[in-house]
Give the backbone structure.
Amino acid sequence: HGGAPIPMAGVPAHAMEAYLAKLIRAGFKVAVCDQLEDAETAKRRGGSKAVVRRDVVRVVTPGTLTEDGLLDARGANRLAAVSVRAGSAAVASVELSTGEVECLAVTVSGLASALAALGPSEILVPDRLFADEAVSAALKSAGGFVQPMPSALAEPGASEARLKRLYGVDTLDGFGPLSGAEISALGLIAAHLETTQAGRLPVLSAPRRAGEADVMIIDPATRTRLEIERATSGSREGSLLAAIDRTVTAPGARMLSSRLARPLLDPAAIDLRLDAVAWFCERRPQRQRLRDTLKGLPDMARGLSRVALGRGGPRDLGALRDGLAL
């Protein structure tokens, strides 16, 4: 490409996941090039010496993984995007494996805390923002793979058009009064998904919006010292999460982790959660029956996401069947 060679490797299709994991962990992005026709079709098209048609069917990056073997079942794998417009900032994120989308309006000084709470695997950033010292410092403390994006992709007009295309809507009014920074951050994610998924659009939830006043802001240094999700050694063992996690499903574990990472500030919302806890504390038999039932619940959200992207198999369809039955 551009006069420079690109490393390529042919691997057996059934063993692709192991090679993919090795390359992603080493920090590479991987373009998956697949055979799109059989040899007989190629022969009819161009004779006995015709080359079988192949094309890039997907670009795999740390934030766009969907395979169970490459994901932590009990942890989120988020793709985040950062945008700053007219002095206001926003962080948008998507977990492609479940279709969950979030958007957080923050100040520029609050970017580091917002990214630390999300713990994204990959962060999309307009290239013009690397000159901003506050943004650069926030990206360094976040720890995810940072992907520079052309600043033109973050322009609100183009971002809005991509979002409408992604969600199949004529207007974004149904998502609430999105700021220019929020639209830009969400638009970066839409642009990245269009490129990496080679035209296959995932099934995504409507963006769940929040502001700095909704959740407790915990700066990265304090978060590390508190050992909320990770001990100072970097492992899950020894953290607050490991000490209290008694969830019996992978989605439940991910929800608990998310709630611990971003504690609520609204007393009414906190009371609703406490009321639910109190209800179950007073009803031990019902609680036990529910836990016994939930133990058999498969990870439906991740299975559904793979099916929507054309990567699902019999196991995913079986998980959806069993999950719906439960």
Notes: Residues 180-196 form the longest helix (17 residues). The chain has a mean pLDDT of 90.
